[in-house]
Amino acid sequence: MATAASVTSLVDEVNCPICQGTLKEPVTIDCGHNFCRGCLTRYCEIPAPESEESLTCPLCKEPFRPGGFRPNWQLANVVENIEHLQLVSTLGPGDEDICSEHREKVYFFCEDDEAHLCVVCREAGEHGTHTVRFLEDAAGPYREQIHKCLMNLRKEREEIQEIQSRESKRIQVLLTQVATKRQQVISEFAHLSRFLEEQQGILLTQLERLDGDILKQQEELEFLVSREICRFSALIEELEEKNERPARELLTDIRSTLIRCETRKCRKPEAVSPELGQRIRDFPQQALPLQREMKKFLEKLCFELDYEPAHISLDPQTSHPKLLLSENHRRARFSYKWQNSPDNPQRFDRATCVLAHSGFTGGRHSWVVGVDLTHGGSCTLGVVSEEVRRKGELRLRPEEGVWAIRLAWGFISALGSFPTRLALEKQPRKVRVSLDYEVGWVTFANAITQEHIYTFTASFTRGVFPFFGLWGRGSSFSLDC
């Protein structure tokens, strides 16, 4: 609240220079000074001295037009506020409930004008037709409305805070995914860089060998050509000398000389041997491994950037007693010896299977499973619905909430409504399982060669879990990071 000194200072700022009182209906003239309308009107009615042609401002003596008054509404509002502060500053403690106009205690509230009234105000004619109530009676309904508003606002604030918390967690997840993908890009390009350097070295070495072989053939060619030129030059010189001799000397041994020249066979050396030419023509074939590796690199990079690597572990609460899990829950091995595992609703009791510790309700995820069937047996990989049957016989097919393949010694089968044997060039040692929850794809591929194995199409409405099964002594699998 403004102090009396500050209010007095403000009052001094809005005084009329003519009457020295607080401005009433303030008006502004051409020079910018403000006066009460009444004071300035009376000032204009006073006859001006003969030396002055027009009216001048009472303060700065600048001329102004008598009809050029401009009402200053903004200053009028300031004056009104100052007068209110002046009144409030005169009230003592406990006088806040006193009517500022009649100096009577306020008991009533006019709902039409939203004004506080004393007894005199209530009896005034301007509130005669309005709804007037005692203060507490009038405040009751508004308190209820405020209570409802507070409840709604607090509820909305809690919802916003929940959204903030949820979105903050999602942002952290996204940041983690970006960091993972950044590391994947760095790792894959480092691998590619090493491979390209190796391939560059191999190709340059082969080109250097071709260079050396070409230069060697060039030396051999120059040697043969020089030798043949020397022989022909000697014969030419001999014939020229014979031709210059007298007839008697020319005819001496002429036949043997001509026979030696005519029967001289010319060796025509080849600049590039056919074998060397073929090697040069076949050189582009040496770059085919590079082309295949680049294609594999791009496919792998696009796949890993598209799918989020799932860092999963096995859930011992779901594991069949014949499966031996490692301490880190990332390996499993089949054993005919039953483990001492307590029974619970989550555990498989007939199918020798185990689930991952956590499942998925959306997104695109992939994980790699290393399969070891060196000593026989079989391994089943895929995903299952969270409602998959745990007790009794489990039929491995999509109708039962299972989308999986089975790897056995020498063959692979897709476990659809009817098992389908798949023809692959090579038995995979590592299988990549990929889940696209929204699209409904479960895809299997050879994680080493990137060869596609099989894809299931489904419509997921509930959570799904990575699924693993083993059968046969010595069969095992491991989860790759």
Automatic annotation (TrEMBL):
Any Pfam family the entry gives: SPRY
Single GO molecular function: zinc ion binding
Keywords: Cytoplasm, Metal-binding, Zinc, Zinc-finger
Domain RING-type: start-end pairs: 16-61
GO CC, one annotated term: cytoplasm
GO biological process: erythrocyte differentiation; host-mediated suppression of symbiont invasion
B30.2/SPRY domain segment(s): 292-481
Subcellular localization(s) per the UniProt record: Cytoplasm
CDD domains associated with the record: SPRY_PRY_TRIM10 (cd15827)
InterPro entries attached to this UniProt entry: B30.2/SPRY, B30.2/SPRY_sf, Butyrophylin_SPRY, ConA-like_dom_sf, PRY, SPRY_dom, TRIM/RBCC, Znf_B-box
Record domain B box-type: where: 94-135
Similarity comment: family membership: Belongs to the TRIM/RBCC family.
Name of the featured protein: Tripartite motif-containing protein 10
Organism: Dipodomys ordii
Gene name of the record: Trim10
